[in-house]
Design a protein that fits this description.
By secondary structure, this protein is an alpha+beta fold. The chain has two domains: about 5-170, Beta-Lactamase; about 175-225, Arc Repressor Mutant, subunit A (Orthogonal Bundle), CATH 1.10.10. Helix content is about 60%, strand content about 15%. The protein is built from eight helices and five strands. It has helices at about 5-15, 25-40, 60-75, 80-85, 100-110, 145-195, 200-215, 220-225; strands spanning about 40-50, 55-60, 90, 115-125, 125-135. The chain has a five-stranded antiparallel β-sheet, with helices on both faces. A hairpin with a 5-residue loop joins strand 1 and strand 2 (about 55-60). Helix 1 packs antiparallel against helix 2, helix 2 (about 25-40) packs antiparallel against helix 6 (about 145-195) and helix 6 (about 145-195) crosses helix 7 (about 200-215). It is elongated and about 85 Å long. The chain starts with a helix and ends in a 6-residue tail after the last helix. The model has no long low-confidence stretch (mean pLDDT about 85).
Length: about 230
């Protein structure tokens, strides 16, 4: 195993700790690096969407991506099994598994793959995807290689969690800013109503709120209309 290459991989993956890293580029690079570092022919990455449906998000080669798509179409194969069980799946000789996964094995062997190792991507007890290692040699990967593969899968999970945290933080900030902007418009509308109707601010807000409720409108929309003077109460 090339230790210098491995060190470079972890330096690259450290980029996921910054706000503006490219998630899809990171995932594609992960599959390429897994193939290089672990000494396998190809790697693919499957992730579950918000509905729990597996999707192909990256692969080190186009033929590997198509093979992963075939697996998802039938929801059958070692990688799908790894995701559903949350356990690693090792197939040391695909020829012996043709009765179990005929479509997948046939296509994999047509490409030239003869073995596959699928490693779960876990978030605590939840499995969010699978890292799949394909090889043109039969036989199991050694224990150290499998452990390193799981470490790389865990690194990918951390990268995804980092992206999710950034996204959630941005959504929260956007929601907060929207709330603040809405509050400003409502205060402006209260002032307009108070001046027109000679009411105090509490009475103005009550009138604004009651009108919005009775007309089944959003309070912020009615307030904006009052401020824009396109509507009077």
């Amino acid at each position: 195993m090339n230790e210098r290459l491995l060190a470079e991989v972890f330096v690259e993956f450290a980029d996921t700790l910054v706000d503006d890293f490219d998630l899809m580029e990171f995932l594609h690079r992960l599959t390429l690096r897994c193939a290089d570092v672990l000494g396998v022919s190809a790697a693919g990455l499957l992730l579950a969407d918000q509905h729990g449906t597996l999707r192909v998000v990256a692969a080190s080669t186009e033929r590997t991506r198509l093979l992963e798509l075939l697996q998802l179409q039938t929801d059958d194969g070692p990688c799908a099994q790894c995701f559903h069980t949350g356990q690693p799946v090792t197939v040391t000789d695909l020829a012996a598994a043709i009765a179990r996964w005929p479509g997948f094995v046939t296509e994999a062997r047509h490409i030239g793959f003869t073995s596959v190792h699928a490693l779960p991507m876990r978030l605590r007890t939840d499995v969010i995807g699978a890292l799949n290692l394909f090889d043109t040699r039969t036989g199991a990967l050694d224990a150290d290689t499998i452990r390193l593969g799981q470490v790389l899968a865990d690194v990918a999970t951390i990268g995804l969690l980092q992206a999710r945290a950034i996204r959630d933080r941005d959504i929260l900030a956007e929601q907060l800013q929207t709330a603040l902007n809405t509050r400003v418009v409502i205060e402006q509308a209260k002032g307009v109503i108070a001046e027109r109707r000679r009411l105090d601010m509490d009475q103005s807000f009550t009138l604004l709120r009651d009108t919005a409720r009775s007309s089944n409108r959003r309070l912020s929309d009615l307030a904006r209309a009052v401020v824009d003077r396109t509507e009077t109460l």
